[in-house]
Amino acid sequence: MDHSSHESSAARPVNPFKLEASRRQVLAVGGISLGALLLAACTSSPGTGSEQSGGAPQKGGTLRFSISDGSSSDTLDPGTALTGNASTVLKVVYDMLVVTDPNFVAQPALATAWEVNSGATQWTIHLREGVKWHDGSDFTSKDVVYTIGRWLDPKTGSSMNAFLSPYLDMGGVSAPDASTVVLKLKKPNSVLMQTMGNSLSQIVKDGTTDFSGTNVVGTGPFKLTAWSPGTSWKAVRNDAYWGGAAYLDGIEATITPDQGAKLQAALSGAADLTDLIPISLWAGIQGRNDLVLETIKNRQQWIFAFDQRVAPFNDPRVLDAIKLATDRDKMVETALQGHGAAAADVFIAPDSSWYPAGLKPEYAPDKARTLLAEAGFPNGLDIKLSVTDSVPGMLDAAQAWQQAVKSAGINVTLDQFSPDTYWSKGYMVTPAFMSYCPQVFPVSRFDASYRKDAAWPYSHFSDPVLDKIVDELYATTDQSRQIELTQQAYLQARKTYGILLPVWADAAYARSSKVNGLFITIDTVDFRKTWLA
Q1: Is there a contact between 505 and 340 (Cβ–Cβ < 8 Å)?
Q2: pTM assigned to the model
Q3: Which of 82, 95, 60 is nearest to 236 (CA)?
């Protein structure tokens, strides 16, 4: 199969923002990153479209959105966003060059077509014409060049730096005209356009340096009118949106960290929509006529990360013991109440064509005890795990893991942080912590978490064997070979990295029955065609 050229706009027009799907439809794969992750490194993704209550879409009305995964440190800079709230705002205000479809193929957004040379070292990107920024000015190649410059500048703190800087510097970026950008790479990258579909890759206007408030300008379907990090935000319809004006007059979001209070807002009618709700609270919604529980199968993985620079996690025997001690089926039964599947420490969903054939996790508590004894812990191992309850389901998963490893002599203490402190003092700071990631383009996770200078180096470890495999992967444009090498790389990574991925979790949010036309992606909600009955 030849993937050296893509010209969707000419050959088969695709509008990724007019996709429709039946409720509860689950697509096979997805794209990075965010509640930040949702976040972290994740491209556009699979999802579900909510059923309509009947009749033609109606224009008007303001949707009230209750979100728990927000923080007072939330930012409107796409490159540094970390929470689900920030991710949602970014996709409301900004656009990306491309989005990825359920088969991990890049589809047009601000870019309409692209070509790559046979060596995967030069990409030519053609931009959509006629797009306006919220201030009325024209979107051009200058904006893309400026945004790429921010990605490549380590001073901006952009997470995109880890995905692009190994392959590109500003000397290789040019704009022959207002609607074309050419990228000459330092070394091959055959999946660059999928990387451009990363959830943190929104395009910002040339010259933008202030991301602190409502002066932020985007090309997206809504304009921001109020922004109070960790508290609330408001946005109104962009009537000049290139993809067609939205039906909603606007969106009003309120940050409600307490999961019970968030659900109560939906139950009482004070909110029309929530972000993800912990599985333990699903029963309160099921069977109601005024609320709908929308679910997405295998939406995300819980990440348990261990810093391999410090003891005891610098001992491979300890890491192997942790993985062997984890009763994954028990976690699915307890934390997920059966709404998920056991995972085998790879960022690939088991129903994906990219999944290594026959791979299954191993549960062997006796073998884990033996390894711990050999590593100097004959009486068991104590671990302090950093967590937060602001991320729906994280605390449930942490408590389930705490119980799941007990039989192997691993004693886990949960160190619970507030929403405002976890992402700065717990996550990526303490030796053992939790995170999460939705279904992603599997290749994106290598630069995200496994390679040297990764965007999120969870275990602070690099493996030259894995690097060699990934280098070969990035040099080929043959998809079948890409899949084969991706599988090889993950089989290597699961053996050497301190990253435990024990389960795939289904997820759900609550919406009022009067809310129609939602398209739910893995990492956020798309409001472009949403309307209120």
Answers
A1: yes
A2: 0.79
A3: 60
Interhelix angle for 464-475 vs 479-496, to 10°?
Answer: 170
Structure confidence by residue, pLDDT tens digits, 52-72: 455 799 999 999 999 998 888
Instruction: Verify cis geometry, omega within 30 degrees of 0, for the bond prior to 312.
Output: yes
Full DSSP string of 341-386: EE--SSSS-TTSTTSPTT------HHHHHHHHHHTT-TT-EEEEEE
129-171 confidence digits (pLDDT tens): 999 999 999 999 999 999 999 999 999 999 899 889 999 999 9
Tell me which amino acid residue 421 is: T
Classify burial at 54, counting beta carbons within 10 Å of its beta carbon; exposed 0-12, middle 13-18, buried 19 or more. exposed
Can you spell out the DSSP letters for 75-119? -S-GGG--BHHHHHHHHHH---SEEE-TTS-EEESSEEEEEE-TT
- How many CA atoms are closer than 13 Å to the CA of 27, on its beta-carbon side? 25
Cα angle at 436 between 149 and 228, to 5 degrees?
Answer: 65
Residue type, 199: S
Tokens matching residue 95: 């656009």
CA 459, chain centre distance (Å): 19
| Cα–Cα nearest to 95, from 142, 137, 131, 146 | 131
**Alpha-carbon torsion 397, 403, 405, 409, what sign?**
positive
Mean of per-residue pLDDT scores for the chain? 87
C-alpha to C-alpha distance for 22 and 519, rounded to whole angstroms: 10
Q: List C-alpha distances in Å: 160 to 101, 169, 254, 331.
A: 20, 13, 28, 33
Cβ(343)–Cβ(361) below 8 Å? yes
